[in-house]
Amino acid sequence: MNELVSIIIPVFNKAAFLDETLTSVCGQTYASLEIILIDDASTDHSLQIIEKWKAQDSRIKTVLNTENLGGNKSRNLGINLASGKYTLLFDADDLLSTSCIDNRINQFDENTDVVISSMGVFNVSLGDVSSTFNWVPTENNALIRFLRHDLPWTIMQPLWKTETLQAHKGFDENFRRLQDVELHTRMLSSGVRIKINSDQNPDCFYRIIEGRHSMEKSEFYTRWVQSASAYFYKFKNLPAIDATKELSGTLIETASQLLMAKISGEISPLKTKELFKLLIENTSSSYSTRIVKVYFSFQNSIPFRVKGLKKAAHLLAHGR
Q1: Which of 67, 170, 193, 304 could covalently link to 76 via disulfide, CB atoms 3.0 to 4.6 Å apart?
Q2: In contact, 117 and 137? CB cutoff 8 Å
Q3: Are 85 and 114 in contact (CB under 8 A)?
Q4: Segment 63-106, tens digit of pLDDT
């Protein structure tokens, strides 16, 4: 197969990682690529690195945003420009195995809209995190798992048919966090035809080192809460399932992140309460969402994390 594959990479202040990422992308054994780099008004020397690579590899195309638009809008610019039959959505600080595209593209057939592969994780170099932390995707209950924030795969694990991404208008630009969760939930609920890659070895690698994040913590958690609330509201009326019950999992996971941020001193107790209030403003008064409030109230009343409490909240809310 020699179909063109579009790889879309938004870049914002990723100079520390960009050379390594582009080495893995440009070094693919599958050569028929267009690599669309969207610089989102970086203030470090990311743009100089992009221009260096563009001079070296004619497959690289660039979009230079004059102002910071954020990940969703930048990715959508790339999706709209993509001319490949298939599209990979990728981040500027992660890595691909040299055979990643070959590995995925050979799995497609006429009844497949997206092929989803396994992912490894690392800190500084590949292999420095145990393979027990690999993300191995499964089709079983994928939609429900996304609603519960028990995520079965991440943004870089799928290889999409480009026409599928474009037909669904790419990312919802109102989401400043949970962008890929919203996208995958919307895709699955619309009936896209997925195929799990039969090769379970990771062909992409997610960097988990803390230095990759630059956003101020209060803003980070505010965006997370706003997006989790919007996610609940957007999908609470999905047909054929009790979506409100399943979405309580996303509320529990978000509340847990707020509580851990308070315990670690990343946000103040007052900010924690303020953000939790924002989180539940658009929820229903169902049994499952009341469990979320009880969980938060109890854990917030004590200065240490109670082991097993979050798991118990999940079990009570939706039987997981």
Answers
A1: 170
A2: yes
A3: no
A4: 999 999 999 999 999 999 999 999 999 999 999 999 999 999 99
The pLDDT assigned to 303 comes to 84
Instruction: Please provide the CATH number assigned to the domain covering 5-211.
Output: 3.90.550.10
| Tens digits of residue pLDDT in 207-232 | 997 555 557 899 999 999 999 999 99
Q: How far apart are CA 39 and CA 62, in angstroms?
A: 7
- Spatial separation of the C-alpha atoms in residues 244 and 231, rounded to whole Å: 11
Question: What φ, ψ does residue 242 adopt, rounded to 5°?
Answer: -85, 80
Using CB atoms within 10 Å of the CB of residue 43, give its burial: 0 to 12 exposed, 13 to 18 middle, 19+ buried: exposed
Strands 33-39 and 114-116: unpaired
Q: Measure the CA–CA gap between 6 and 170, rounded to whole angstroms.
A: 14
**276 forms bridges with which residues in the sheet?**
none
Helix (H, G, I), strand (E, B) or coil at 229: helix
Give the span between the Cα atoms of 19 and 7, in whole angstroms: 16
Closest to 118 in 3D by CA, of 102, 98, 104? 104
Say how far apart CA 152 and CA 208 lie, in whole Å: 17
- pTM exceeds cut of 0.70: yes
* Residues of each domain in the chain carrying CATH 3.90.550.10: 5-211
Rounded to an integer, what distance in angstroms lies between the CA atom of residue 29 and that of residue 263? 47
Q: How many CB atoms lie within 10 A of CB 257?
A: 19
Q: 60 has which bridge partners?
A: 35
Which is nearest to 3 in space by CA: 57, 82, 65, 119? Answer: 82
How far is 295 from 300, CA to CA, in rounded Å? 8
